[in-house]
Amino acid sequence: MRDNENADGSFDYLVYIGRFEPFHNGHLAMLRQALTQARRVVVVLGSAGGARTVKNPFTAAERREMIERAVAGWDPARVADLHFVAVRDYYEGPRWAAAVRGAVAGALAAQAGAQATGAARVGLFGHFKDASSGYLNDFPGWPLVPQPNFGQLNAADVRRQWFEQQGELGTLDSLLPAPVAVFLREFARQEAFAVLLAEYRFLEDHRRRWAAAPYPPVFVTVDAVVRCCGQVLLIRRGGQPGRGTWALPGGFLDQHERVADAVLRELDEETRFGLPKAALQQSCRDQALFDHPERSLRGRTLTHAFFFDLPLEALPAVAAADDAAAVRWVPQQELLALEGQMFEDHLLILDRFLHLFGGEAAPVPFSG
Fold first, then answer.
1. What is the pLDDT of residue 135?
2. Cys-Cys link to 353, which of 191, 236, 276, 307 (CB 3.0-4.6 A)?
3. Assigned CATH class of 11-152
4. Do 16 and 84 meet the contact criterion of CB atoms below 8 Å apart?
5. In what residue span(s) does the Nudix hydrolase domain sit (predicted)?
6. Model confidence over 225-257: pLDDT tens digits?
């Protein structure tokens, strides 16, 4: 843990990073404290851009709305002193930290002008909760202003109770700013909540079924990135988790097969891909392992992804099969627009082979 290098609190900006899923009273106490130590606060909304999950139920725009409503309930004038940026998960610490720094620099430049930004005094505001707070060490250029955990609240516990109570708040009311409680009640009446509740129940049942294992399971999957004529093959998931999201064709490794055989099998089972096996093997240009411990809510899941670049003049015919509800060829330049509908980290897998974000991480828009 870094020492507080600027204890007098003389900051122009404090950077407060979190997921705020949802924004609770502990978060509000932290934010109020930050606003007493700096003229303005840049709120970094993490895990932005992806499809809704039980871990990240709310869009960046919805979380911004929660925070602004909560702060307005405390002091309406201070809402203008909040600046929001959204940053996606990258599962690569240095890349994520660079994206945060870039997003914050952009917010400061927009607020103060590029010339004044260089002189701005910027600090990092946060609480060392557990190993998940290690990211606070990734910004040595920002003096750390450490804080206690107000009320010992945990957003994961709030989400769990909310789902267990099927959208009812009950005693959760006392843990949330009043405007956030109103937001959650309204959200629980929407179809999006019903979809999340079904996924929550699936994942809880999945965990119960594996609870008797002598040690935590590690799952192995394969995924196929197939490009042809400037388009990429995607399937729409027909089952949980992630029902309805777009994904790469793939699935679990069978007990007696190699990963290179499994990816061809899954590609055929889900898309009825008609190209001969030998032609696919010859078009394989790259492969990579994606093994971040938090990449899947099903548990520790390692996926081996293979990139097939087909040198054809026309798209092969495909048809949805097995647990794929639909299949389509998507122009490569349209993939980023599907970020909010993509399963797990599949957009990052696509970026690994297709460089969708370019030299620097693409910004995450505040979409609803």
1. 78
2. 307
3. alpha beta
4. no
5. 214-353
6. 999 999 999 999 999 999 999 999 999 999 999
